[in-house]
Amino acid sequence: MTPVIHTRDLTRRYGSLAAVDGVSISLDENRIYGLLGRNGAGKTTLMSLLTGQEFATSGEIEVFGESPVENAAVLQRVCFIKESQRYPDDFKVKHVLRSAPWFFPNWDAAFANALVSDFRLPLNRKMKKLSRGQFSAVGVIVGLASRAPVTFFDEPYLGLDAVARQVFYDRLLADYAEHPRTVVLSTHLIDEVADLLEHVLLIDAGRIIVDAPTDELRGSAVNVVGGRDAVDRFTAGRKVLHRDGIGGLVSATVSRLTEAERTAARSAGLELTPVSLQQLVVRLTEGTTQEFQESA
Amino acid sequence: MDESKPIFQQIAERIENDIISGALPEESQVPSTNEFAAFLRINPATANKGVGLLVDSGLLYKKRGIGMFVARGAGDRLLAERRERFGDEYLAPLLAEARKLGIDERQLAALIQKTASSTTTTPKESQ
């Protein structure tokens, strides 16, 4: 499959801080990607680079085979919904929706109108008078109805209640099924979106530390729970991602076990519990805070 | 969804269970992958992979331009496979737990009979 986005050794520095540090990724056409990572990990900077809104310090970017920087042919096929989008002062919701087709040739006005009523948005209210959730809903509508071949959503759910987030996920899935395209979803609500993602990119301190199909990540780690001695004996010589204890009871997170190892663990009286994608991401990124601050 | 197994495998198992229970009779049409994706709120590519497993093993077949159907004999094939795995999947853990509690095999057999006679479910007749 041809990649729609390709980077090689992409780096963006701010002074001594490498916000994006040697990133080499390829994104295939018509897949839904999750771009995950902690605050300040480099998610927004990476998406800004890919959409030509930031300049790379070094490295290469190709979007549809060309550099995105000031490239209208590329940028009209790309939609970037930012967490903090700015609008002209007197813009109302209807103005945003009316101007969207100028930027996005695939704009579907009927779909946008249906979404407006799904999210119960007041069309005549000024953008700056909207609640945080309503403001986010405008972004979600523009992102969905633009049907851009590559769509980035940078934490699109801020302030959206649980019902509205579910509307977003459902409409995204339904519309993606009918109009396949490449979607990059950056989010902290990993458990909510885990089943929507086909592929996960995990960024930490500017570096990509996981680049894998979601299916592969499920079951890639397991919690081993039991008595301290039994857990220690079982995990000896293994890489332990995380360890928790209460009294004599210990829970250790280790990487994927074979069927024989699972049987061995059970017969040693240990309990095995699955690790969700969200827990896995927490385990993989929690230890690095200290190092990050030191290197910054 | 179960966190420990790939979702596509769970989709395949779900369809298998529906074939065994008769919810999806032989020669009936299976929902499309997009319908599965929307209903289960999963990525359509994942649903497609799950359905693909069953097509590859011959339990489902494609009618071009119409959709996916349950193959003839799929129910019996699945029942045979499941019966074969029954010992490993259900009896082995049952025996392990019984041993842990000091219940020997005779007592276990008696327990099974007692429980079976006190529950009202009748085994499904094979057609």
SSE inventory with pairings:
The complex is a heterodimer of chains A (296) and B (127).
Chain A: E1 3-14, E2 17-23, E3 26-28, E4 32-36, H1 43-50, E5 58-63, H2 72-75, E6 78-81, H3 93-103, H4 109-118, H5 132-145, E7 150-154, H6 162-178, E8 182-186, H7 190-193, E9 199-204, E10 207-213, H8 214-217, E11 221-227, H9 228-235, E12 240-246, E13 249-255, H10 259-267, E14 271-274, H11 277-285, H12 289-295
Parallel strand pairs in A: 4-8, 4-9, 6-7, 7-8
Antiparallel strand pairs in A: 1-2, 1-3, 1-5, 9-10, 11-13, 11-14, 12-13
Chain B: H1 7-21, E1 29-30, H2 33-40, H3 44-56, E2 60-63, E3 67-70, H4 74-100, H5 105-118
Antiparallel strand pairs in B: 1-3, 2-3
What is the number of strand segments of chain A? 14
Average of the residue pLDDT scores of chain B: 88
- Main-sheet strand order of chain A equals 6-7-8-4-9-10
Q: What structural category do the secondary elements of chain B indicate? A: mainly alpha
H/E element sequence of chain B: HEHHEEHH
Give the count of helical stretches of chain B: 5
Q: What ranges of chain A have pLDDT less than 50 throughout 5 or more consecutive residues?
A: 288-296
Radius of gyration of chain A: 22 Å
Approximate strand percentage of chain B: 5-15%
Question: Count of DSSP helices of chain A?
Answer: 12
Largest sheet of chain A: 6 strands, mixed
Strand content of chain A: 25-35%
